[in-house]
Amino acid sequence: MKRTVTPIRPASRRWRPQPIAVGAIALACLVAGLLYIAVQVRALYSDHFQQQYASLVMEAVARADNALDAASLLKRMPPPKRPTPGGIDSQYRQALDELDTRVTELDALIGSSPIPAPRLPQADATAKNLDDLRQSLAATADYWRMRRDAISTDVRRRTLRVASVLAVLTVVVTGALLAALVVVARRHRRLAGLTHQFRHAAQHDAMTGLPNRQQLLARLDRIAARRIPVPCALLYIDLDGFKQVNDTFGHSIGDDFLIALALRFRQSLRPGDLVARMGGDEFAVLVTDFGGDAELVSIATRLMNCVGATDAHLGLGLVRASVGIATWPDRVADPRLLVAAADGAMYQVKRHGKNGYAFAIPPAPPAPHA
């Protein structure tokens, strides 16, 4: 019986917006939108000009209609029995001249239209064609009224489009900015986490998780920089017989021993004390706010017991500890010299049989001048 093997599809990577890509898309949308708005605004200016021009033509048609009404009224009046200067005939001729002027102005205005438009069908104002002229003016008024209404509708549509595009651009740009801010915030948080990890790795031992030599020395520098001195002590611990553990049982057992011992050290010390791995099988404990040498002896004894308990727990029977103790300011003049002083005291213990503790000997006072 054949077994069907379903091919494993690679997990699809989730697309995450990149700040540069988001900015480029937003910029492209912004440029396209602004170009569209510029075209529409230019068209709006043109429509506004045409709208004003149509209003001028309508005003000219109205003036021509008024002149035509005046001429038609004088034409219907009966002639006087005795012609007098300035009478009806003279007024009628003046009205025809005024009408001819208005019609000529209207025809010239139509001829100057920015967009081609039909000319005035009847542009000759005489007594025989007043009715034809009235029809021509009415047709012209209807045409330009429709044209003005059409332009007004187009202006409203273009204004609505511009407003819609502005609203869309606002949403797009705001969304792009928010997306870019989110991406930058995520990257900043990730970089802050990595920075914290790197800083922690630079100041801690990778195997045991204890502070390393660098952090201990930095703590001593801060103590030395204080204006008001705070007494402190350093206990330097070296494991006796640890090399034999690595040679006999292997480095993995040695690593397990160091990890277990570091945990016991942390549990046996106060929260304010600092225990650091100086490298290899050497540790250091920085103690502040202690009562005196008796309390330091008690701490050194606890540390030695931690080493013995770890050795017994792993069933080795090989490892013990030598502890050197240096204090500031009574035994060491500078807190930054505590490591060297405690290390020297520790080697005194090793020279005298190991598995014990010793205090750093204070320097001899200067001899008095003769």
UniProtKB/TrEMBL annotation:
Pfam families on file: GGDEF
Domain GGDEF residue range list: 230-362
InterPro entries named in the record: Biofilm_reg_signaling, GGDEF_dom, Nucleotide_cyclase, Rev_trsase/Diguanyl_cyclase
Top enzyme category: transferase
Annotated keywords: Membrane, Nucleotidyltransferase, Transferase, Transmembrane, Transmembrane helix
Keyword Membrane: yes
Record carries keyword Nucleus: no
E.C. number(s) listed in UniProt: 2.7.7.65
NCBIfam families from the UniProt entry: GGDEF
Protein's recorded name: GGDEF domain-containing protein
